[in-house]
Specification:
mainly alpha, 14 helices, 72% helix, 0% strand
Length: 227
């Protein structure tokens, strides 16, 4: 009754909450009607939630309804579905659409698609745009691009991207860059980077620490002397 009163007063949050209850109770039609009603009033959370609750096979139609109601998030989720299905062309089109309607985080996702299809120039360009836009979606993406370059044998390109990732605040990239430097034979740089990663608490250093510091590290980050 309280939910209905709130809905009658125009609360879209109440519509979405009641939608979840209807869906959980097995009232699929009632749930979808509430989600669509909320979307018509500008709140697409219900359609997005319903897509997740109903699973992959039924998600696309709901995401498309959300797109029609103006949800940028739904565009990105559709793009992710296409990417996971291997349709990179359609995924890129959708990510680009998200960028055009104002989602700066999608810039980083376009960069990943560009890298996957072998367009390194395009990948770099979109990564740069994401950096300039302050995209939070870029966190981790530069490391992913770097890994792609490393796998393709472009070690210089990989190192440059790892360093950009570190500079942009991706602390996990320190360990990745250290590993790349170690594999390239630059042990001095690798050790310094591993120590930096250890200083910020990257637990992955524990797995390789015995190779570098058999007796561990002192609190100040220097190798512990043998007893």
């Amino acid at each position: 009754a309280l939910y209905q009163q709130a809905i009658d007063a125009g609360s879209t949050d109440a519509m979405v909450q009641l939608m979840r209850m209807r869906e959980a109770a097995g009232d699929s039609d009632g749930a979808e009607a509430l989600a669509q009603r909320a979307a018509n009033d500008g709140n697409t959370d219900g359609l997005l939630d319903l897509a997740v609750m109903r699973g992959w096979d039924r998600a696309e139609a709901l995401y498309r309804q959300a797109v029609e109601a103006g949800s940028t998030e739904a565009v990105v989720r559709l793009a992710m579905m296409r990417e996971l299905e291997g349709d990179l062309d359609e995924a890129e089109v959708l990510y680009q659409r998200a960028v055009e309607i104002g989602d700066a985080n999608a810039l980083a996702l376009v960069a990943v698609i560009k890298e996957k299809v072998g367009d390194r120039h395009g990948a770099d360009a979109f990564a740069e745009r994401a950096l300039e836009a302050g995209s939070t979606g870029l966190l981790g993406v530069l490391s992913q691009l770097a890994w792609e370059r490393e796998e393709a044998g472009d070690l210089d390109g990989a190192e440059a991207l790892y360093r950009r990732a570190v500079a942009s605040g991706d602390s996990d990239a320190l360990f990745d860059l250290a590993l790349e430097r170690e594999q390239a034979g630059d042990r001095a740089s690798a050790e310094a980077l591993y120590r930096q990663a250890a200083d910020i608490g990257d637990s992955r250093v524990n797995a390789i620490g015995h190779r570098w510091w058999p007796h561990g590290l002192d609190p100040d980050g220097t190798p512990t002397a043998r007893w």
